[in-house]
Design goal:
With 358 residues, the chain is of the alpha/beta class. The chain contains 12 helices and 19 strands. Strand 12, helix 6 and strand 13 form a beta-alpha-beta unit. Helix 5 crosses helix 11. The protein is globular. It starts with a strand and ends with a strand.
Length: 358
């Protein structure tokens, strides 16, 4: 079986191998034939060591495909079912799930410490307990979410992470108020999805901030009212808000420097939503006086800040109704053999989302 493998954390290239086999199939598990996968910036962060992940590993956590085999005790799925891979399934029994905060369930994270694959040289892990840059993957049945037949595999793959994260940040975490002003810092696939969410909620002004011109142009097509480079953000703040600051600012980069900028760009009493996944040793500095005096809300948004299954269903309904554009997020397509080309597209910012066709 073919899979793209990172041999050591810190390497910037993947090797596509044909001697990988899936492991772990058994009761409560399913085997999936992956048809499409999306490349998310979190995959790059895991490769570089910013996000913790045992190695060697197969990156990829956005994916969709067909069920090949179901293990004992799995009754809601059968071979041939179309599914999207959910890298953070809810167990339904932990304190977070019982409180209704299923996006905070840690059961999915526990999967990341169990190898999903094997090569002649030893075990291979799957990123975030999945690893979708491969022809097949074995996961817990809860990680395989059925999708309707009319949802293409490439669109479904995006729903598995980036779209759910960005839309949910605006719809669930921030609950953007109609008529408000919004700034989104970082306009890749997740940032564009946050822009679409803010537009759905009726934001009057949506300023997209990104250093890459092509992404700024894309942001305007997806609902931003203006798009600026980071150097132009201060002027946009002055022009749109008379210098007061935006009602909502979304940080979709995952760095303390941009989070600090986002905080400074948020008005007093406004809301900063932290969407980007950053490093454990990258610290955001705020002084105690400004925290008290500014009364700004700082809201981290984990996987869209809501129930994942409900978010999937809502996204599909909005897509069917033409209220959001998911196909347009896919700006590049490459076969698995050219996965390193996709990595370059992500690093240079030329792609919103690259679909890996498997």
């Amino acid at each position: 079986m073919r899979a793209a493998v990172l041999h050591e954390i810190g390497q910037d290239k993947l090797e596509v191998l044909d001697d990988v086999e899936v492991t772990g199939f058994g009761p409560g598990r399913v085997r999936i034939r992956v048809r499409a996968a999306g490349l998310c910036h979190s995959d790059l962060s895991a490769m570089s060591g910013v996000l913790p992940q045992p190695g060697p590993f197969v990156p990829g956590h956005e994916g969709a495909g067909e069920i090949l085999e179901v293990g004992e005790g799995v009754s809601h799925l059968k071979p041939g079912d179309r599914v999207v891979v959910c890298w953070l399934p809810a167990c339904g029994a932990c304190p977070a799930c019982k409180r209704g905060q299923t996006e905070l369930c840690l059961a999915g994270f526990m999967n990341a410490g169990t190898p999903n694959f094997r090569r002649p040289g030893g075990d291979v892990f799957g990123f975030a307990g999945t690893g979708t840059f491969t022809e097949e993957v074995v996961v817990d049945a809860g990680c395989a979410v059925p999708i309707p037949d009319d949802v293409p595999f490439d669109v479904a793959a995006l729903i598995g992470c980036g779209v759910t994260t960005g839309l949910g940040a605006a719809l669930n975490t921030a609950d953007v108020e109609a008529g408000s002003s919004v700034a989104v810092i970082g306009c890749g696939g997740v940032g564009i999805s946050a822009i679409q969410g803010a537009r759905l909620k009726g934001a009057a002004e949506i300023v997209a901030v990104d250093p890459v011109a092509s992404r700024r142009e894309s942001a305007l097509r997806f609902g931003a009212t203006r798009a600026v480079s980071p150097d132009e953000l201060a002027d946009a703040k002055q022009q749109v808000t008379a210098g007061e600051g935006f009602d909502y600012v979304f940080e979709v980069v995952g760095r303390s420097a941009t989070a600090r900028t986002a905080y400074d760009t948020t008005r007093r009493g406004g809301t900063l939503v932290v969407v980007g996944a950053g490093a454990m040793d990258d610290f955001l500095q705020l002084n105690m006086f400004e925290l008290f005096f500014d009364e700004k809300r700082i809201l981290p948004s984990m996987y869209g800040g809501g129930d994942v299954l409900t978010s999937y269903e809502r996204t599909i309904a909005l897509w069917r109704a033409g209220r959001i554009d998911l196909e347009g997020l896919i700006t590049h397509r490459v076969p698995l053999a050219d996965i390193n080309e996709a990595l370059d597209q992500m690093r240079t910012g030329t792609a919103l989302r690259t679909c890996i066709e498997i």
